[in-house]
Amino acid sequence: MRRIIDPDRDEKRRMAEDYLVNAKHNGHPLHGDSDKALMFYEMAVKVFEEMGDIDKMAECYLGMGELYYGRGNLAKAEDMFMKLLDAHQRRGDRGMMATAYKSLGEVYARHGNRQAAQTKFSKCLEICKAIYPPGEYKKNEERMKNNPLWNC
């Protein structure tokens, strides 16, 4: 069976990939232009949403969430991390679900919502325990529990 080439779709993908590269470049601490990075992430995620590319959408949500978190815009960070969680739940990627739960826990901890933070951190650890070998899980658990936000 021959694959039908859609030049518009291929061009959109290249354009969205370029947006994503620019977003990561501008969002890097050495370049420090988070406004520009967010603009590129938003442009990229729009195209990836149209294409139904969940992996790339999730990559954008993570980058945007981290930028919003760094700026102290916790409501937008929470929104992006919830979208990240949803995307990875649809994909069944438990490792990235753990990342989303950890990020949400950090948002709630900074909000001062200790109970919600602990719930998300516990969910993160539960997933990590299921997917990592015992020795590696223990190292990760110790590292996570030494994070001051985890002890809110």
Helices and strands in order, then pairings?
Blueprint: H1 7-27, H2 34-51, H3 54-71, H4 74-91, H5 94-111, H6 114-131, H7 134-145
Helix pairs in contact: 1-2, 2-3, 3-4, 4-5, 5-6, 6-7
Description:
The chain is mainly α and 152 residues long. It has a single domain (10-151), classed as Alpha Horseshoe (Serine Threonine Protein Phosphatase 5, Tetratricopeptide repeat). 81% of the residues lie in helices and 0% in strands. The protein has helices at 7-27, 34-51, 54-71, 74-91, 94-111, 114-131, 134-145. Residues 1-5 have low confidence and may be disordered.
Based on Cα principal axes, name the global outline: globular
The count of strands amounts to 0
Distance between the termini: 57 Å
Going by CATH, the homologous superfamily would be: Tetratricopeptide repeat domain
Please give the share of residues in helix. over 70%
Structural class, judged by helices and strands? mainly alpha
Task: Briefly say what this structure is.
With 152 residues, this protein is mostly helical.
Supply database-style keywords:
152 residues; Serine Threonine Protein Phosphatase 5, Tetratricopeptide repeat; 7 helices; 0% strand; disordered N terminus
